[in-house]
Amino acid sequence: MDVLTDVLNTVRLKGSVYCRSEITAPWSLQFNATRCATFHVVDCGACWLTLDGDPTEYALSSGDLVMLPSGAGHRISSTLGLAPVAHIQLDVEEPISVRHYCHNE
Length: 105
Description:
Blueprint: H1 3-11, E1 28-31, E2 38-41, E3 46-51, E4 57-61, E5 65-68, E6 74-77, E7 86-88, H2 98-101
Parallel strand pairs: 1-7
Antiparallel strand pairs: 1-6, 2-5, 3-4, 3-6
């Protein structure tokens, strides 16, 4: 068993929202605080993560995985300082369209 599977089985997750995003710079998404653990995987490219109330900026790149077990509000963006194009609430019943949120015209 791989490490991630072992960790996820240990914390006994009870639900999931899956979203695969293919977005191009510039982009910035704000994820509102939730009661659920949140994770992001960077498949290719790079981005920045900032947590609500924390001035630290975390550089992420291809292959990185970030897990926020407390469901903290956070922003991921292509470049530091960009205003988010959307505020996303993950503990909702309807499907989420990130393609819609990231459409830059």
